[in-house]
């Protein structure tokens, strides 16, 4: 049994069915039904009409059972060192227990507070030393900031 393909839709035409259209330049077109003939004569693009074979092929419809879906690749996490911390240090901190981590945090806070207090005490001592050195004379604001003092003008 000889079958033909529809020129427009791409569907199969069985014997005794369809229409034959011969153009002026003697090119033969076969259509399964009047609908596909009409669309062809309107110069419609079969790739834009959803029920044609060309559209279905272009948009990959109805081929899911033939080809298995392509598997996506899983991203692999790579551990890298950060500036100021090597990979060993990072891994060690990650495996550290919560109690040890909180104890280390408290120790770090205590150390920074002591350092801050020592700096404040040193600043206070320095300020007291400077105040005792300038006792008895009035120092202008600019002089207190470290500017050069003006030469004293003596009058007769």
Automatic annotation (TrEMBL):
Any one GO molecular function term: structural constituent of ribosome
Bias (Basic and acidic residues): 94-129
Domain of life: Eukaryota
UniProt GO cellular component terms: cytosolic large ribosomal subunit
Domain Large ribosomal subunit protein eL24-related N-terminal positions: 1-66
Presence of the UniProt keyword Nucleotidyltransferase in the record: no
UniProt GO BP: cytoplasmic translation
Residue segments, region Disordered: 94-156
Annotated signal sequence range: none
InterPro entries: L24e/L24_sf, Ribosomal_eL24, Ribosomal_eL24-rel_N, Ribosomal_eL24_CS
Entry keywords, A to Z: Ribonucleoprotein, Ribosomal protein
UniProt keyword rRNA-binding, yes or no: no
One Pfam family recorded for the sequence: Ribosomal_L24e
Biased composition (Low complexity): 130-156
Family classification: Belongs to the eukaryotic ribosomal protein eL24 family.
PANTHER family per UniProt: 60S RIBOSOMAL PROTEIN L24 (PTHR10792), RIBOSOMAL PROTEIN L24 (PTHR10792:SF1)
Name of protein: Ribosomal protein L24e-domain-containing protein
Originating organism: Apodospora peruviana
Top-level taxonomy: Eukaryota, Fungi, Dikarya, Ascomycota, Pezizomycotina
